[in-house]
Records
---
Amino acid sequence: MSDIRYKLHPVSAFINFMKSLKELIIPFIVIFGVNIFRDGGLTAMFTGGWVSLLPLLIGLVVVFFSLIIGIIKWKRFVYWFEDGELRIEYGLFVKKKRYIPFERIQSLNYTEGIFHRPFNLVKVRVETAGSGKAGEAEAELTAIRREDADRIETEMEHAKHHRSTPVVMGPHEAQTEISEEVEVPQKKELKTLYRMSMKELLILATTSGGIGVVISAVAVFLSQFSELIPYESIYEEVMLFLRFGYLIVALAVFAGLLIAWIISVILTLLANYQFTIQVDEDHIFITRGLLEKKKISVPFKRIQGIKVSRNPLRELFGYATVTVESAGGSMGGKDEKIRLFPLVKTGRMLSVLEELFPEMEFQPTLVKAPKRSVHFYYRLDFLWMLPLIGVVSYFFFPYGLLSLLIVPPVIGMGIWQHRTTGYALTGKQLTMEFRGISKHTFFVWKKRVQAVNVLQTYFQRRRDLASIQATIKSGMLGYVARINYMEKEDASRILDWYHPVPIQSKQKGQPE
């Protein structure tokens, strides 16, 4: 292995500096906001002597030290290849070392931010099956040249195709090893299977539901300044505004929601621009993004299952979202699920999935839930709804009787869930379909299932019904698919399918 020590690009120092400023922006806004809104505002700050400028001076010192820290982190960060490992040395005040065997590396994920592209650089996230916290990479190279990123892949392939063959000597001779170099395959060509069209991207953006994320982000941001917000003045303004009438208030709320929706559409367009799926013999490569271009690799051997989801609106127009349940790896820096298709037409989705996973059946005939189990799907809802309806009807009579209008939709939702629920066993594959509001179809190989559980309540036992759940390894916590109120015989059939061959049978020479 090479003993050359490689450094990050100098842009890393600036990126580290910007990360520090991002973490300091809330304290800065709070500190300077207090000084701006006090008596005299900015004028008093600049005319009140050096004492009034003290917060500004402290801020400048903090910014200067953040820049120095960013430079020190860049200078102390080095990496090299040795003994089949990627070795990293880093640290601000305390020198740290991290050795990552190439055999443990599951994928190298690339990100091109706005500071990377002008210099043809990439950020490399090293993902392993044992990465620490949720969404946290084993290691991160903030900014390196593309050829350096390719060098890491080459060294990794070289290590995985290099083996040592032990040679057994006589009883009084030392055992030695002969290192055998296996030819390292050339860089594999990527085959493009799917590229999201602009029509699909626009439909994804307008139906993504990201408005809730935008509103939550605004709420979290405002919560940081709760002490500075003049609630009494705002309350008086709101009460004055309400005098204009409910129509004006409704229009104002609609305008606010519309602005939040537009922001969510823009963010979704930027995040999924030019979404592309490519593949080689061992990996699926997903590329997306405009301002920040991301490329992740998903090893086939780490894929545990596939989930196809359809919300009612997308289901009506024949669109679906496909998620890969992977043991290790995430989409970006968070513990996001890896979306193989953020949005795709069902027919186009099936053709790509069949090419990616030819051994899987994506249109099996499902065994549906029995008719006698339909009332189980809405019975529990009535346990808490009926007392609430009774209280509302009694205290707000006669208008409280309008709460009875919620009963038909609840029954209709239960019937809808009942008609969706089903499963299929096709060889070594389990398919489970179920619905909350969105419909989910879950495909998994038998060898990937970690556990199968059969659950029965007292009332289910009386009707010979059971709920079945299958667990696979996915991310940090795993994923559980569950179908409710199936025939007890169906639960036994799935257990028999999953149950391993007894050891005694293997000893008698029976096939596995």
---
Amino acid sequence: MFFDAFGTDSFLLLTALLLFSGVLVAKFSSRWGIPALILFIMVGMAFGSEGLGIVYFSDAGTAQVIGVFALVIILFEGGLHTKWGTVRSVAVPSLSLATFGVLITSLIVGLAAYLLFELSWLESFLFGAIVGSTDAAAVFAALKERNIKAKMGATLEAESGTNDPMAVFLTLSLIELITAEQASFWMLIPTFFIQMGLGIIIGLALGRLASASINRIKLDSSALYPIFSVAFALATYSITAFSGGSGFLGVYVAALVIGNSELTYRYSIFQFNEGFAWMAQILMFVILGLYVFPSELFTASIMVNGILLSIVLILIARPIAVFLSMIKMNYSTKEKLFISWAGLRGAVPIVLATFPIVEGLQNSQALFNLVFFVVLTSALVQGSTISLVAKKMNLVGPKKDIPHHSIELISMGNAKAEMIQYQTNDESAVVGKKLHEVSFPNRANISAIIRNNEVITPYGETEIKAGDFLYILVEDKYKEQLKKTLEQRVQKSEQLMKEKDASS
């Protein structure tokens, strides 16, 4: 084949073609209303042996390694962008969904698999465990630019970021029960608490270490800080896993700590990780698309059984799990129904489906194909209708202000200065004031204002308006003072509004 004939040269060309294809389909996915992961997988299938015949790929072990690596990067990027103040308000329901919700979903889907197929109880529940968790990559991508209410988005993102460890634990535990004669259910209970506990503890510790290291270690180039952060992400996963904890949970917790800390070159770190996560997502889904063989996937048996299991998963198991996991929590019936519908499946179930193949379990390839078809169905049906369902249920929030602009601050060496971005809103005390009327801390100056995606050069008479992005140049030692000033002004404005409302 082409790849075999030209070796290294063809590999580099193939990588370029795959990345080009991934970028193009990502651009058109939102326009077509099709989740990007579907198109990425289709690109992989197109390049595979039963498509254009460019690449023959059938190594489950390699697919598993690439999948785990990509998931670490995606989880880390998602955690960096998650605001702790938002997650804190939905922590209990999210954790309930991530644990009890996954368990209930796995049991119901496992029961359906046992009734539909000639599988043992353990094999049936193994299938349920593999498809039991929602997928962080799919959920983060689906919600990133959609104006879903903040409460719904935070719940779904926190759930998808923390439920992978439960699915991994159940999957590996059931494989052990199938393959090991001495294993028992009772041994799994302490193992679960050890894995989750170590994941949280090590994630918190390494997250704080990473934040302190990024701020205190002075590197020669600002471009090294994003690489430094990725190194911490990979190290967190490995150290947690080697210690017997959940590596995925450790990475997400560490990212939460890092993302909610004051960081040197914060925006460079965030932008690099966002781009790296996109590349990891493209690579992972394309590889998974290469691994699957359409002639085995789209058979009558797989399609019929896959549709039946998808119906059970989407319309029965997931809603039951959501309603049982969120009993007596402050969510309306409509909100629970939306959370049920938005529980997308994606890369995690497909990657987990490679574990039985690597272990050589009976019926593992058929299990993989079935999981793959269920994921495709979930992503296509649920992923493409999230906005429509949210609109029908009146769960649409204000349009997200996502700035498509950036101001890069090149490393200033010994100057130790940084550009801070601050977005104003209707409650900001600085709104309506001219720049010369605002008393910023010493050594802090507004260098630019972005309004409606246009750059405004600030001067004394420039009036600040709601929605403006202020870019403030400040020395490192005054950064905390600037932050406190901005927060105090917002709090003061809110207090004045409350007093005005009370008096009227």
